[in-house]
Amino acid sequence: MNTAPSSRMAGADTIRQGRASLGIELGSTRIKACLVDEAGVQLAAGSHTWENELVDDNWTYAIDDVWGGLHACIADLHATVREHWSIELTQVAGLGVSGMMHGYLAFDSDGEQLVPFRTWRNTYTTDAAARLTAAFGQNIPLRWSVSHLLHAVMGGEEHVGRIAHITTLAGYVHAALSGRRVLGIGDASGVFPIDDATHDYDRAKLEAFSGLAAVADVPWSLASILPEVLVAGQDAGELTAEGAALLDPTGSLQPGAVMAPPEGDAGTGMVATNSVQPRTGNVSAGTSAFAMVVLEKTLGGVREEIDLVTTPAGDPVAMIHTNNCTGDLDAWLQMFTEFAGLLGADIDQTALYRLLYTHGLTGSADAGGLLAYNYLSGEHQTGVESGRPLFVRGQNADFTLANLVRAHLYSAFGALATGMQVLLRDENVALDELFGHGGIFRTVGVAQQVLADALDTSVSVSKAAGEGGAWGMAILAAFAARQAAASGVESTLAQYLADVVFTQTEFETTQPDADGVRGYADWLEHYRSGLPVERLAGETLR
């Protein structure tokens, strides 16, 4: 990332003249906005905290909370711009929306939502995903939109006959802001399989879907209800007057911004780490975790651990996705925050995290025999249908604070490491560079070292590692605005990132430690052997 600070005059002029671009990301726990100049330098940011809810055994976010959260996030952005630049944000050149990939949002012909939003965390689509995998000859994960759709069809749900279109969270917000029902190809690749050659939905698999007995009586074709697919830089509409009023009810933000194709959080992570070319990869770690490795060629055969998706430019990517990452770790650290309060210690949460994370690295390489399962929801990588957070140890385990923290850090990447072994060892996929981003990497060198040891590969993290998603979407928005103004002189996304955005990037690179690699391998073997206990917990504990 180009992190050179803009001068006050240059930054203010960029904002005042409407040359900045805005990226918005609806993440699992925060809605974030990032404003950047034409070279990708961050000018301002805003955020709003939100949480999913388990309603009727369905992980969901209320649509009212989507808009309430966006209003609060944009208000925070406005306040930051006023405080730092002493001006009002009224116009942006480019605007892009990113969101959690996958899930299910279905609407009727009047645009009315038919059922509550079903997020990627829901794992009740097992039968539907299995049927699709068999029909397509490609792994179709439980969380993909087409799995949720077929699940609803197979369940005879009343709303199925009234479906006019389905989309993702980013696609829904984009359509409301622009009037265009489109998806960026990376987000679309988590809805339905993509043909790498045509950069569109795979026609053969669309035909295979229509041939399923379960959908014989539905009154729509799948192709007719899916959003249009676009690659990065293509025309995705503009911010309408209605969309501007919806996004910013104060009326400050004016219409007219070039809209970038809406993307998923996986795509923005690739952009934010400049890992969009073959043999590069990144790990995004937050509430969930996923690794993206850009392939030299598409993998053959079916591997249930590996999803085949794309970069925002449409290149094939192998994705290792896990439903769980930092959620349980955060819960434990909150308990330590509460304990510090009981002692009367007024300690900043970030400082406490740094203290505990760093102390964790002093523990035994195998975490002293302590096991932690961070499963707030089911975990397909390890065959756990219904997750329960679980901490367990043998009588002779070395139960120290350092080992406790280390075990939970190990657990954050446990399922991911399981899937990555399949990709790197069994499938022999080449990986030259791996980049990390997400909140767990804010404490320099800790989670980064754990991940390097877990995967036995070097891991690089930039100074922007904690805020990658919204910044990555802002870069895609700036790229869209640049392409719209290019008058036919276009560049590729990879060229734009290399020549404009990542010209002065500073990365902190951590090499795997031999003892840490052996220790994590021993811990992971222990972790796998204990999975029957985790599965039993899901069956017996409420």
Commentary on this structure:
The structure is a single chain. The protein is an alpha/beta fold and 542 residues long. The protein has a domain at 327-412 and 514-540. The chain contains 19 helices and 23 strands. Strands 17-18-16-15-21-22-23 form a seven-stranded mixed β-sheet, with helices on both faces. A hairpin with a 2-residue loop joins β4 (53-55) and β5 (58-60). α3 (126-136) packs across α4 (145-154), α12 packs across α13 and α15 (446-455) packs across α18 (514-529). The two termini are 45 Å apart. 53% of the residues are buried. Mean pLDDT is 93; it is low at 1-5.
What is the CA-CA span between the terminal residues? Answer: 45 Å
Secondary structure tally, helices: 19
Mean pLDDT over the full residue set: 93
Give the strand order, joined by hyphens, for the main sheet: 17-18-16-15-21-22-23
Helix content: 25-40%
- Low-pLDDT stretches: 1-5
- Could you tell me the number of beta strands? 23
Q: Please indicate the percent range of residues in DSSP E strands (runs of 2 or more).
A: 15-25%
**Largest sheet report:** 7 strands, mixed
Question: Which shape, going by the Cα principal axes?
Answer: globular
Query: What integer value in Å does the Rg equal?
Result: 23 Å
Domain Carbohydrate kinase FGGY N-terminal: 22-246
Family: Belongs to the FGGY kinase family.
Organism: Paramicrobacterium chengjingii
Domain Carbohydrate kinase FGGY C-terminal: 282-481
